[in-house]
Design brief:
Elements lengths: L1 H9 L3 H17 L5 H17 L3 H19 L7 H13 L3 H16 L6 H17 L3 H19 L4 H16 L3 H19 L3 H16 L3 H19 L3 H16 L3 H19 L4 H16 L3 H19 L4 H17 L2 H19 L4 H16 L9 H14 L2 H17 L3 H19 L4 H16 L3 H19 L4 H16 L3 H18 L5 H16 L3 H17 L7 H12 L8
Amino acid sequence: MLRIGNILLCQGEVTKALDCFSEVLGIGYASDNVNAVEVANALYGRGCAQFCGFHLADAMKSFSESLNWKLAALGEDDPGLACIFYQMAHVYLEQSETEEAITCFEEYARLQKLETQRNLHDNAEICYAEGIVAKLKGRQDAALSFYQQALAMFATLFGGDHEKVASIHFDIGCVYSAMGNYEDALSHFQNCLLQRRKLLGSHVDVANTLYEMASIYSQQDSVQLAVKCLTESDRIWKAKLKNNEKLTSVLVLSAKLWKSLQCYQAAEENFEKALEHAISLYGQEHELVSSILLSLGEFLQEINQIQQSLFCFDESIHVRTALHGADSPNVAEVEYSKGVALLFQGDFEAASNCLTRALTIRQKHLGPMDGAVGDTLNTIGFLQLRMGNISGQEALDPLTEALEIRRAIGNMAKVISTLQNIGSVYKKRKEYDSCIEIHSEILSIRQDEFGAHDLCVADAWINLANLQTSGGRLVEATVSYEEALRIRTLVKGYNHMSVAQVLFKLGSLNLRQNNYTDAKQLFEEYMRIRAEEEADPDEEMAQALTLMGDLQKETGEKSKAQINWSSAQEIYQQLDYPDSHPKLRKLRARQKASPFGWLLK
């Protein structure tokens, strides 16, 4: 009967397999001479069936009981225990309990290595487990090496298509994705998908692969391909998981990806289905329900449905307060998100109250240097900036504290975010030297992170040059704009809109310094690239025409100046600028003050 249960499980007949294992256990428990190993094997089989049905708590209970029976019968160093630790590790992974999963995988590998007559398959499994451990510990290069070794061994064993080979392609794809090597990741995911479609049909593992591919296409801005993959993965998940516990978590993952693709209707639908499913499984007062309410609230805030988002946050706070107490970091997490929503709604007093509560709880329970504390301080500083509290230290003090924490943690993206906020304070104060110093540091971080020739570095050069221009440091600004021009030309080619934008900046700067010849050449190149790119008229084009007119007035080409000013005026009107707008008023003043201006009266 035990063997029949195993066969049924391999065929995907989970319910029938469970019946077989239960029958074996009923006989085993009732027997006068209990066979401990047989009972352990039946419990193991039952755990595998429960895991296939994503009944994780039941599966862990069965595996734990199986382990206890085998430990009593075989001792703690018997390789026969290895398979139980392997399955327990996967349950822990599904429950996001990483440390426990690592412990189980390491114990699995240790026990497997005690087997005196290991074959190629055993060695491949050990290598695969060591790859998983390395990945979970963040050692991506080591994980990749172990996985590639395991893949080579399994390919030798199985030859063609096999689920184990497909699984390793999937894991290698995940490692490459984490390393930012999206092309190689896609190659392995596509290999995995081909094999899984052939072997499994419309299986949950096929949906998992499609989801990972959608995530990569999203990173590459290939929205249509991402939507295609995610649509199919959703269809499979909803059909195969139905009332399964797993459905809730995958719907949340899918909703978040739909959100990043700006497919808001699909995102909202999946968040709401996940919430409904979680409540039906666990009731209203459950941590998963509160987490989905939090995610839904953040989504609604992003699409500017503020009142609905605040309702979700309040419901999540209610659930978490009941579960963990009002002073819990779990509650602080929602208070923080609610504070952010109120901030962007413009309800600064309420936002300040939420953020202050979140900060107090996080400092008390997480410590003064925790990353969540740094996030809260950064947002409080940004709130003070939005409120216009810049003359004193209301904004700078929390931002400076946040910067210290974020530097200590080493999250350079967040360090840059805080530096930008500090720079905004100095800019509003017109303390340009301090602001330039901040943006010079941002540039240095970008260069260290991406290299000297990355487009992010070009953007940093432009931001620095803009501030140098505002601060009157025009020679330095010229050098900075030229660095940005060099990088964008190198990456995008000279005849590109992003290059034209820098030419416009340089032309404006030269005009400001009365370098009319250089300014004219730069503006003409700007116009040429814009014309060749057939770019639609925009505010920058209107500004360029205005400045070109100013230049022509100064060099005596007054009729041409009138033509360019008129063209600029037409663009502003096409963009629905009101006649009372300062830019249109100044243009009319220019035209009337110049020769031929009487034509406009």
